[in-house]
Write a structure and sequence with these properties.
Length: 220
């Protein structure tokens, strides 16, 4: 790579005060990078979209879209209304854009060579992630602020700590070979206490206990 090319600045935006230094990006090359580039296997991509119920009413956001495989699969196989991708890596974004153009998918797929922490997620009905647990934790407050009720978040391999998945029971994730898929729905995911299914006997015992506590609480 020539030194000119190495010096070239991308359009990537950074948190205030930070500037992008490298053209070729890996994990940790910029302060805002929360994951290296590792593509999700196609069978896992399809299962993620299937489990999340991706369909014609969805606007999918892939945060850290890599080579765009989730975007293309969502549009071409699940017929979602629109798919939007963000990635810090300019080469990956350029190649996604070339593919979008060659397939005539402008308007259905948009890719931004930008930091997804600065994206507006208010239009997203389905967010896909393959980042890291710490990356997901950093995104959680943004999800809680910006995502509309009913939006789903599906994450490959890494959970969102502090959120409750839609899959009741243990394990709380879906399994595809050695891969895990965590599925969440806003706002229910934010409720820390999920009702635990109980047998009728347990339920009546719990009702009695609750009554005792309530009586105690009201001074009876
Ligand atoms: C593990 S790859 C996932 C690629 C794709 N979503 C998939 O599942 O195949 C993670 C991607 O996130 C990108 N990334 C990491 N932090 C980012 C940030 N703050 N903004 C935009 N992209 C980011 C990386 O450049 C990398 O391409």
């Amino acid at each position: 790579m020539s030194s000119d090319r190495r010096r070239k600045r991308s359009r990537i935006d950074e948190p205030v005060g930070a500037r992008v230094r490298n053209y070729s990006l890996g994990w940790g090359d910029t302060p805002s990078s929360v994951a290296p580039y590792v593509p999700t296997p196609m069978r896992v991509v399809r299962r993620m979209l299937e489990l999340a119920g991706a369909g014609a009413d969805d606007v999918v956001y892939d945060l850290g879209c890599g080579d765009g495989r989730i975007l293309f699969t969502a549009v071409e196989e699940f017929d979602v209304k629109k798919a939007v991708g963000y990635d810090l890596n300019p080469s990956l974004c350029e190649s996604v854009q070339r593919r979008v153009d060659s397939k005539g998918l402008r308007g259905r797929i948009e890719v931004f060579n930008e930091n997804f922490f600065l994206a507006d997620l208010s239009q997203a009905t389905l967010v896909t992630l393959y980042l890291t647990t710490s990356g997901n934790s950093k995104l959680r407050p943004k999800f809680e602020k910006e995502l509309q009720d009913g939006a789903r978040v599906v994450s490959h391999d890494f959970p969102i700590h502090g959120w409750t998945t839609m899959k009741a029971g243990s394990p709380d994730h879906f399994i595809v070979g050695s891969h895990r898929i965590y599925l969440y729905r806003v706002p229910e995911a934010q409720l820390t206490e999920r009702p635990i299914p109980r047998s009728p006997e347990e339920e009546s015992r719990w009702r009695r206990i609750r009554e005792v506590f309530l009586r105690f609480d009201s001074g009876c």
